[in-house]
């Protein structure tokens, strides 16, 4: 995941490590969106949307991994420095919490990120566990979103020429369909996903 994050960051800005991006700001802002998907408004009925909650957690992880890479230099160094915290998360069993507890956990995570101006992987792992997002599921969702972000950058997202709607369906929908159909082997997953996204994009583009 660190290698993939380094790759997509470099597509946006080859000198991204020197750009001084405020990763913590993006993280606590994502926490606000996460709160909305949990449901905190007492004046109307709301049900937690776990699919969207998981996607918001994955978005937070994108910024967290970016900070780790910036702090430690390389993916290998960042992984070495973070392995204990990640292993704690990987070994934890997803737990079911009530809405009030989950909201409090998100607020604490956002508050810590803002006050410390940094990302804490150990706390993030506890947050993901509280929302029943296990390690393998996090990996699959992260790779999926990362590959889609890379694909968008490669096909004109920055200059506005990329089309997010393919044959009447948003690219996120195509992504979910393709992810469900391919093996989740850690060494080939991202490459195969990108290849199949490219194939589908060409196919629907020809049909337009």
Give structural notes:
By secondary structure, the protein is an all-alpha fold. It folds into 2 domains: 2-131, all-alpha NTP pyrophosphatase fold (Orthogonal Bundle), CATH 1.10.4010; 139-207. The chain has helices at 2-12, 23-38, 50-72, 75-91, 99-116, 121-130, 135-154, 171-179, 189-207; strands at residues 165-166, 169-170. Strands 1-2 form a two-stranded antiparallel ribbon. The protein starts with a helix and ends with a helix.
What is this structure, in a nutshell?
By secondary structure, the chain is mainly alpha-helical.
Provide the fold topology.
Blueprint: H1 2-12, H2 23-38, H3 50-72, H4 75-91, H5 99-116, H6 121-130, H7 135-154, E1 165-166, E2 169-170, H8 171-179, H9 189-207
Q: How many discrete domains?
A: 2
Shape: globular
CATH architecture of the largest domain: Orthogonal Bundle
Distance between the termini: 34 Å
Q: Roughly how many Å is the radius of gyration? A: 18 Å
Helix content: 55-70%
| SS-derived structural category | mainly alpha
Largest sheet: 2 strands, antiparallel
CATH superfamily of the largest domain: Type II deoxyuridine triphosphatase
| CATH top level class name of the largest domain | Mainly Alpha
Please tell me the overall pLDDT: 91
Order of helices and strands: HHHHHHHEEHH
């Amino acid at each position: 995941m660190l290698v993939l994050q380094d790759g997509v960051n470099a597509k946006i800005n080859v000198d991204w490590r020197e750009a001084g991006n405020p990763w913590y700001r993006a993280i606590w802002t994502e926490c606000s969106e996460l709160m909305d998907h949990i449901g905190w408004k007492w004046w109307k009925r709301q049900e937690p949307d776990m699919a969207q909650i998981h996607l918001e957690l994955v978005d937070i992880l994108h910024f967290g991994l970016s900070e780790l890479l910036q702090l430690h230099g390389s993916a290998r160094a960042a992984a070495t420095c973070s392995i204990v915290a990640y292993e704690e998360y990987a070994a934890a069993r997803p737990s079911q919490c009530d809405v009030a507890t989950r909201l409090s956990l998100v607020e604490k995570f956002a508050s810590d990120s803002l006050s410390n101006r940094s990302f804490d992987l150990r706390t993030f792992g506890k947050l993901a566990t509280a929302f029943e997002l296990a390690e393998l599921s996090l990996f699959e969702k992260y790779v999926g979103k990362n590959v889609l972000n890379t694909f968008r950058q490669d096909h004109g997202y920055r200059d506005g020429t990329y089309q997010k709607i393919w044959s009447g369906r948003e690219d996120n929908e195509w992504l979910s369909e393709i992810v469900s159909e391919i093996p989740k082997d850690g060494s080939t997953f991202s490459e195969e996903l990108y290849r199949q996204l490219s194939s589908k994009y060409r196919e629907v583009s020809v049909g337009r």
